[in-house]
Structure formats: C-alpha cells, structure tokens
Design goal:
- This protein has a domain of 49 residues.
- Helix content is 32%, strand content 28%.
- The protein is built from 4 helices and 6 strands; from the N terminus they run ββααβββαβα.
- The strands form 2 sheets. Strands 2-1-6 form a 3-stranded mixed beta sheet, with no helix packed on it. The protein has a 3-stranded antiparallel beta sheet with strand order 3-4-5.
- A hairpin with a 7-residue loop joins strand 1 and strand 2.
- Helix 1 packs across helix 2.
- It is flat, with a radius of gyration of 21 Å.
C-alpha cells in the first residue's frame, strides 16, 4: 500500500524563450477514483450493515454537511476533518462597496484532521512512469 508519484519537469518560462528544463519535481498520481457504491461496499464488509445501508448513511452525511454549510457553519467530521466554505469578491477601495450579492462561493474547503494527516504521512511513495496515454491504454485493456 502506498502513494504513487511521477516526475514533472520544471521549466523556466520567464527568463528564456525556449522552455528549458531546470529540473524535476514529484507530482502525486492517482490510480483512479473510488465511487460511493465501492466505498459503501468496502465499509459494509467491515460491519454488520448492508452495502445499501452504508450508502444511505453516507449520502445522508453529504446532505447534512451541505445543509450546515449553507447555514454558515463549518462541519467537523471527526478524523475525516472539517469542511468549510471560502468566499471571493472583486477588490474594492471602500468597505461599503461590497454587498452580499457581489460575494461568491469560491470553493468548499476540506481540512483533514491532524490525526489523519499524521497517519497518511507515514505512507510511502513509489515512483511510476505513467503518462496519461499509458493510463488510458491500461484502462482499456483491464
């Protein structure tokens, strides 16, 4: 079990007309996305609840997080972490120039708990040489 990474070239886009490679940096690579039914199946295998019951509870949790975020709360889900909303608006000179209608939700922010972060920091990384095309071809085969 571990994370995967690939090397990404770092180029100097400012000081040269050619995109000269200055070096490389690691970039995390996902091997795929687990959807809600798959997660529910995994969790149900470890409890007495059925897959459908687990899926229902997870969907209800999502609804609850959305509800409380819409009321202006942050939502802490224990070791999973805390969800909150961030806002954005145009830059103005005076405080009176901003009204609620000119503020937009930028994104929903997830901050994992310190405990989860600490546990996941112990997971090792393994280098892979995947490109998007190679991953696509692998998917088509499998």
């Amino acid at each position: 079990m571990g994370f995967f990474y690939k090397l990404k070239p770092v180029t100097d886009n400012i000081n040269s007309k050619e995109k000269a490679v200055k070096g490389f940096t690691a970039m995390a690579v996902s091997v795929g996305t687990i959807d809600l039914p798959k997660l529910a199946e995994y969790l149900s295998e470890r409890t007495t609840f059925t897959k459908q019951e687990v899926k229902g509870v997870l969907e209800l949790a999502v609804d609850g997080v959305e509800y409380y975020l819409s009321l202006g709360h942050n939502v802490s889900m224990g070791d999973l972490g805390t969800f909150s909303v961030s806002a954005e608006s145009k830059v103005v000179q005076g405080k009176d120039e901003i009204r609620g209608t000119s503020v937009d939700m930028k994104r929903i922010v997830h901050r994992p708990s310190k405990a989860m972060t600490s546990r996941l920091k112990k997971v090792p990384f393994e280098r892979v040489d995947w490109t998007r095309r190679a991953r696509k071809k692998e998917k088509e085969k499998g």
